[in-house]
User: What shape does this take?
Amino acid sequence: MIAADSAHHAATLREQTLRQRRRPLRFHSVNMTNFLFDLVSNLVLLTIVLSACHLCNRLVPGAALNGAHIFVALVSAALLLDAALTFLVFADAQSRYGKFSTSSAFFERASAYVLAAIAALASRYVAHRRARAAKTNHNTLVIRTSPYSESQLPM
Assistant: This one.
């Protein structure tokens, strides 16, 4: 009887520890899903801003809008408003907005904002370098027309 009771107790403990091990993984995947949703939504907004700026630059003759810088400004404003909501508004109503008012939830959203801003600035840097490399092509064709002058034609 004692051996059967201790075996049942050991099986119950094993089952509890297995449930305890599974639970943080599920909680972690929910947090990761929220982070990935925030990041993807920010990248979609980046695409919309870049497309709108590119379209405006094409249609308006004198416009020179930099979509990456506009997006970084928008993300900075969103981050400040998110911080104000998280630590001022949601913090006062813990019972209603408990999961949104935690600092870990804010840092997940903030890291999604920062990664999207880094992606915007990196894409701008790469596009700027490509444009500069195409503009400063040193492969020119030199045609000797006379001993005193040379004509240079870009290739």
User: Anything to note?
Assistant: The longest helix spans residues 2-59.
